Amino acid sequence: MSAAFASLEKDADVVFMLKVVDASSWVSLKNFIYSKSVPKKNSSLGFKAVKATHKIRYLLLIFLSLINFVKSVCRERSGILFTGAGSGLICTNGNIVDSYVPSLIASETGLLDRTHSYFLSAHDVMDFWRNRHFLWSRHVVIHSYLVAPWRALVQHVFFGRYFPSSKLKSAADTIVNRLEATGVHITTDEIVKLHYRFVAGYWFFRMAFALLKVRELYVVSAYSNSEQCAAARSMGARVIELQHGIIGALHRGYNYCTESSLLPTPNEVVVYDQFWKSELLNGQYFREHQIKICERVKYEIAKKEGSLSIGPYVVFTGQGLLEKEVISFLKEILKRQTKVAVVYVPHPTESMEYVNEFRKELSSFNHFLLAKDLGLSTERLVLDSVAHISIYSSCHFDAVALLGKTYVLDVMGGNLMTHYASTSPSVFVCINSADELLEEILSE
Residue 361: is its pLDDT beyond 60? Predict the structure, then answer.
């Protein structure tokens, strides 16, 4: 997959072929293509995925976001916008905190002050609803809810009436052919629609940012929000990415075999520590002057939280991957009757149906708990655990920072985590069974 991406960027000049004004849709397409190559995620955050009893709240949150956007436009604008993720909101000591903003950045820029605009990406509807007073008072705009119907209108109604240009068709055919050799099956039509999706989002944010007079954009996960990055850069705004997960040479969003100015990548990246700075530099795309180190605020918050008093337990953080394999693995741990409890932490994008499958299969065991029912942050749960396990998760690195070790359930081919296991086997420990894990933790 990496070789195919490199070939497309270096030899086929796909970045230019997917040009949109002064940007390119390639970053967005690359992310979608990668997502298609991994085992299917059982997740969805769109209207169709919302339970019938929550749809009214979903629509009210859209209305709230519209009002908050109008308020943001009408008040005196600072020109600074923070685009975060709904999963970053944490309640600590009765206050809502955005855990994706490092304390140093918050104090230096006042990024979370009321004078600056505040966008969030989609998250669990009920979590948003519980925090609705914060969303209202802080004028938060859930941008995913607003851009989705616009995308649908432009992508399917307007662009759907026209055939793609010869340049776009050629780019799509080239991508399809290069990826076919890697076992990734995607159609020309899918590529064209993904490109039009980017175009729709780009113009939505160009208009929104013009109204907000954005001159600085702080963004969580720039590659996931490349439309916003492209719109901001088109306006001459500076884009600063705040790390929230895995980055570096092996991550699709942080390495490119071209330095084309069309790529809507950030001007600067704020990382957790020296390890991640080195990882980013190893990708040979970002330069040292573009990287700044700021300690992760989630660790500061976690150390001040209460703890879970249930005796020894392991934490498994999900990614919506390989549901049957994960349930089977957790079931084997619980069957051993070692009195080691299991806490499953769903990924923010895992659907309610997906999570309920874990309840159905594992709730008969007294020592099984879901993090959603505990009211503690993932970082605090990891901090107090005897071990952290996952297939592929940024929480592996949280566990290394908090516990000094993490376990990789080695059941997925092409898993990035096996790279770290090969370079640091005593820190990233690969396991294949519950017995291997229990033998490890019970011997310590």
Answer: yes
